[in-house]
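Following the same procedure, sequence and fold were stored together, as reproduced here.

>
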Amino acid sequence: MKRIVSLLLAAAVAAVTLFVVAPFAVASSTATAVKVIAKDFRFTLSRKTAPHGKVVFNLVNRGPSPHDFKIAGKKTKVIKKGKTATLTVTLIKGKTYTYICTVPGHARLGMKGKFKAT
């Protein structure tokens, strides 16, 4: 009998905890989206800063050459014209990150820039 009461009490505590904590967990898991257009050996970003935490970079290749996007030590796959790729990174508050295209020669031709986590 004591064991059943203990299990019911534990289940009740877990349910209350989940009810109270779940809304905050959902709110903290939101990510900021940034659209990245690759074209003619340059990137155009929908924004140059984002709140720190999870940021999702959505790469769209509108140029004739293949491109990728690298930031914060992570990168997308190389994509061809008309294709898309998504990259999710966690950025640290106050840090400025360099982004580049890692296809040989592309960064040197201008496919690079700075992005800041606020």
